[in-house]
């Protein structure tokens, strides 16, 4: 039973059964991990029900975010053990005149709102999965971490062939990341329990869409197994990994 | 009542009601129209139920495609009357070794299939809305017509500030087009009756997602009214429009 | 007499005389100014002969940089008077492991060098032309300020049709900027006295190449006249210009 | 003695001697070859002096083009023997209204000219080095074959880490290719005898600039040796190379 089964119509199930979609794409030998926008703006500063959380953090995904974080820790633990490059994306604090918000200004009535909680930056990656010195944080203005950033050049420099993507929101920045990664011909995995959204239908259907066409939706356990069987230390000559990064307690 | 209301959960309705989404973004003064992938591969060569159509055309959206076409004609009629630039996208016939398919090869069991019907090219735009000499057809390999194509440069050359997007699939190439157009800060409209998908849930939820964050989902009638009140002939010095394009019967 | 005349061969003069190059491209109605990499790394911290300056600042252009700065001030003065958007580009301080240097690491024997002078950041824009709050500073890793940055989206958001480019080096980041701006179909001007290089032949020939094919090389005086006759305040609804920016003494 | 030595000033030689430029960047293990714009528009249809050739073909590089072609044949011969992917770029025949010419329209007084010789397409790759079925021809509107084309996605799909670039013009499309390839962090070689320009100073100085900063300018012999020691058939599972492509007489 997939998370999307409850949302598909009967016709949908028949059509997608016969159109050849939903084949496993598979992965390559040189993976990287991309954690999209798991910051306080999208998680809230504490685990609380989404309807409470959005009062303070308008983009919050509430409890679902905090349920994903232990899974993200597991995924990152395996990546660190192998010294697989880890990319995070997050937003950029906006100018006071809002110039750099571009189209975002137009589509949200709370867009200029400055709420939050002192001590927690909206664009700060949640501390439970805080980036380490070897990680690369991509600051972005638009949904996709590929758009207007150096991400693609970093991936070509490292010869990455596979991206394991997770984070939030499934229907927003994760979706945009997956389309771009697929379009540049990377093998793409979406790690299901590590990925979340503020919308339940959007979460389910976007996973369905991406699994049908662009990426393999996999469980954390499968992602970890895959990472652990790749060659260790492929990028040691380019990235200075901390001596003991796999044992770091955060 | 919106097409997506049946697919949202109760929590979804509460969350999106309070998070400030779903504001109308509005349009500018220099629009263009983008018709995404309305070719025989995605429509089938005749109007028939989708489950029949996909036997021959694995990507077909069946009847829903053919119901959209008269609306697309109306939209294009208004654009032609104003001499607003019209862009179409469609696929490229693949090499026999499939090299240029890239990631598509991995994700569909019927990807190499050569079916179709003699006389109807899979990448041929449906004749009922055939491009005219002044239109620009963008051939592409990936979901977004911006990816790996000259589309963006054409839009900057013309000083376009608004894209009215329609076509198929809502959850695939239309979605990718909208994300890219939004990311480059164009005002974006999605013309609802002119847009279709093979999946019912995917159609509804992707419209919902895009309307919440990136674009205004509008009716054809509204799009036509908007186009008709823009200044006529803004691009006459750059594009040779046919003398009587608005009256062309196709 | 042009700066490049001394460097061309006789054959060059005949070929370019008959091949139709070197037509004036002209400008549009919505300009922006782009000042490329006029930071301490490329200027040195004081005006001194280039052969002295490069001992401390390996990328320095020496005296030629400091001769350009009063011209850049004039150019920026006119832009501020009209409230024309001003973009600066500069580098990003590298990670200690050099990962983000990418290809730069390979091509310079002094690439990892940390010299400079305390109190002057290599990537700090020279104070004589320091950015104001309304200006947009593009931080970049590669020659072109379009590459891996949000610059293009900002230009489309503002409906810019013309870029006046200056700074350094003519044969490096200015050249890369001009090619990209041309490729996106912007009208491009290069403001001659505001543009400099560490190489004399490279400066002359790159101006020649760009003037022949991609851009109009113009004098500062011409750029100022052009800016002053454009409409004032076109972007006041998007950018909060300081009340008295044209009178700021820096 | 380098081709650029005659064009540099004495100061240039001193500055570049001390600034750390001109280090050999080196190559990787997964090369591809890119032949830029070696078509009849840039070569003319026969070997004749450039001043004659430009009467018919306004972009022609004359005799220098035809002197390069036997070297390009050698380079391609080695690539074919190893089944290294070969990319060509060339232009696209323009619309009759010139819309797709964009900025090119503005900068050349002979831009709309339709001259040429019956039987020789301006955008046709010169027959002596005609593409084979396994080669990939990139059609482009702008100087760089990366701009508005699928080239980058093809390179990431194949895991290419090194581009050997040649063709024409050194100061135009080759230069733009090299900047983009460098910016995406590929190792870049420019094969000197396979590369040409209509301008003598531009050819020399652009090679100098690129060798100093972005690429290794190498002789054909060195490129061939490098190719022959790479692993054969790395891409046989993705590209259907002709059985005997290395022996093809063209």
UniProtKB/TrEMBL annotation, chains A, B, C, D:
Domain Isochorismatase-like intervals: 32-222
The UniProt record lists the keyword Protein transport: no
Family matches, as InterPro entries: Isochorismatase-like_dom (IPR000868), Isochorismatase-like_hydrls (IPR050272), Isochorismatase-like_sf (IPR036380)
Keyword hit for Hydrolase: yes
UniProt similarity note: Belongs to the isochorismatase family.
Alphabetized UniProt keyword annotations: Hydrolase
The organism's place on the tree of life at top rank: Bacteria
Source organism phylogeny: Bacteria, Bacillati, Bacillota, Bacilli, Bacillales
Protein name: N-carbamoylsarcosine amidase
PANTHER family xrefs: ISOCHORISMATASE HYDROLASE, PEROXYUREIDOACRYLATE/UREIDOACRYLATE AMIDOHYDROLASE-RELATED
Name of one Pfam family that matches: Isochorismatase
């Amino acid at each position: 039973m997939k998370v999307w089964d409850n949302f598909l119509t009967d016709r949908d199930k028949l059509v997608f059964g016969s159109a050849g979609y939903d084949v496993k794409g598979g992965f390559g030998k040189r993976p990287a991990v991309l954690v999209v926008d798991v910051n306080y703006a999208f998680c809230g500063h504490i685990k609380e029900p989404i309807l409470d959380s959005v009062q303070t953090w308008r983009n919050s995904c509430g409890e679902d975010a905090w349920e994903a974080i232990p899974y993200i820790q597991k995924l990152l633990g395996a990546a660190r053990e192998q010294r697989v490059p880890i990319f995070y994306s997050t937003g950029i604090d906006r100018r006071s005149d809002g110039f750099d918000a571009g189209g975002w200004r137009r589509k949200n009535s709370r867009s200029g709102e400055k709420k939050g909680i002192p001590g927690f930056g909206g664009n700060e990656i949640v501390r439970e999965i805080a980036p380490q010195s070897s990680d690369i944080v991509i600051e972005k203005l638009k949904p996709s971490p590929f758009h207007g950033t150096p991400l693609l050049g970093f991936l070509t420099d490292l010869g990455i062939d596979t991206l394991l993507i997770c984070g939030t929101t499934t229907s927003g920045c994760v979706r945009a990341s997956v389309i771009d990664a697929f379009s540049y011909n990377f093998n793409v995995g979406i790690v299901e329990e590590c990925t979340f959204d503020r919308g339940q239908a959007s979460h389910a259907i976007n996973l369905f869409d991406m699994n049908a066409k662009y990426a393999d939706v996999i469980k954390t356990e499968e992602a970890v197994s895959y990472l652990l069987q790749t060659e260790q230390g492929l990028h040691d000559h380019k990235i200075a990994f901390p001596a003991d990064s796999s044992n770091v307690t955060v």
